[in-house]
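Give me C-alpha cells for this 295-residue protein.
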Amino acid sequence: MDRFIEMEAFNAVVDYGSFVKAADSLNTSKAAVSRYVSDLETRLGVRLLHRTTRKLSLTDEGQIFFLRSKELLSELNNAELEITSRNDIASGLIRINTPVTFGIKHLSPLWGKFLDRYPEIKLEISLADRIVDLVEEGYDVAIRIANLPNSNLISKKLSATRLIICASPDYLKKHGIPQHPQELAHHAIISYNLFSTKDEWHFDGPEGQVSVKTNPRIHSNNGDTCRAIALNGLGIILQPSFLISEDIQSGALIELMPQYKSIELGIYAIYASRKHLAPKIRVLIDFLAENLKNI
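Here you go.
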C-alpha cells in the first residue's frame, strides 16, 4: 500500500506544483510528502522531480511516471467509487457547460430522459463555445470537443467527430469543385475562428499531410452560422460531422475531396477531480457515454 501512498503524494506535488499545497490537499505534513516522494525515487532508482527554491519541474522519467501513475490512481479510485457509491442516491444540482451547437443539437434532447431516470437531480446548463475554468467558475462538468492537451483535469471520452469540408451545390456550380486542398486558397471560405489552427487547414491525403492557408471571406465564432451561410451558397466550410452529416445525407451540402481527411476530434466530459466523485456526476457521465457513443 505504501507504493500507492507514494504515487498519490507524487501526483499531488505535480498537480499543485508545491510540496506545501500537496500536503494540505492530502491532510498531512510537508515532511511526510517529501519523504514519500524521496522514497519513491529511491525505489525506482531515478530522479522524478527537479527541485529548486522557486520551482518544481518533472524530469523526462518523471513525466512518463506521472502520466502512467495518474491513470493507475484514477482507475483505482473509480473501482472504489463503483463499490462504495453503488447504494448512494444520485441527487442535487449539477452545473454543466457545453458548446453551443453541440449542446442544442445533441444534448438538449437528452436532458428530459436523464431527469426522468434520476428525479432527485437538478440541472443548470450553460452554453458557450469558450473554454471555461471549471474550478474558478463553479462548473461540475464541461463538455469539450477537442484534442485534449495534458491537464490536471480529469476527462472521459464520450464519442468522436471528424471535420468535413463541404459546400452547397449552388456554390460548386458557380465556382467549380476543388480537387486538391491547395485550390482552397482561391475559393470563398467561411471560417470558424475558434479552431486552434485558425485559417490554416490541415489534411491527410494520398501524398501525406497537406496544409493550406485559406483566405476567408467570412469569419464566425459559431458553427451554426457557418453552416447557414454555406447552405445559402456563399462559400466552403470545414465543420464537424455532428453538425453537417444530415445536410450531406440530404444533398444540401456536398462533401469535397473525401480522399483528403481532416482531423478527428474527441468529445469529452471534463471534471475537476477524481477524488470522491459524487454519485450525481458519475451517473451523468455514464448516461452521456451511453447516449452519445453512436452520434
